Amino acid sequence: MPDSAPIGRRRTRDTSYLRTSVQHVIPEPSLTRQRIRGWMLRAVDAAMAENPDIIEVELALRLVDTDEAHELNSQFRGRDYATNVLTFEYGIDPDGIARGDIILCVPVLRREAQEQHKTLQQHAAHLVIHGALHALGYDHENEDDAAHMEAIETALLAGLGFPDPYTPR
Question: What region, left, alpha or beta, does residue 117 occupy, with left being phi > 0 and alpha being psi -120 to 50 degrees?
Fold first, then answer.
């Protein structure tokens, strides 16, 4: 007889290949560590399915205010505004560990969600997945790469019941 979980408890799978850190510089109760980790996990699973060199992943995500997002965007990208998501990819080390940092600006997320007629969770899920994919080596510098990355994002968000973020609403 197969091993079963106790009544009232869901069986959990081993996700020890993903280590995460989530820092809330600015509070946003709907963006819990558990929810953010779940979104990251979807992106990590998709990336690992395509890239066998990735064995483990370490991702840090920081929810920041406009001032910090502006400062980081200016310092690292030379752009004089607060951006919604900023990702730092550190590559895959010889042991197969991929590392990256993701910065999300909560006030920009809130504003964009409202402008795009989305919930904050829909927009945040998209940008967490988008940032995690960047941290794992994906980019959108050319049309083919952009189409591939967007297809992954759209499929992962559909799995959450969220609409295609690239279709205007």
Answer: left
Question: What averages of pLDDT result for each successive group of 10 residues across the chain (169 residues)?
Answer: 54 89 95 97 98 98 98 97 98 97 98 96 98 97 95 98 90
DSSP string, 120-134: HHHHHHHHHHHHHHH
Q: How far is CA 95 from CA 20, 53, 58, 90, in A?
A: 18, 9, 13, 13
Q: And the tokens for 107?
A: 């006030």
Alpha helical stretches, state H, the chain: 33-50, 66-77, 106-115, 120-135, 143-159
The C-alpha angle 51, 56, 57, rounded to 5 degrees, equals: 90
The model's pTM is 0.92
Helices (H) and strands (E) counted in the chain, each on its own, are: 5, 4
Say which amino acid occupies 126: H
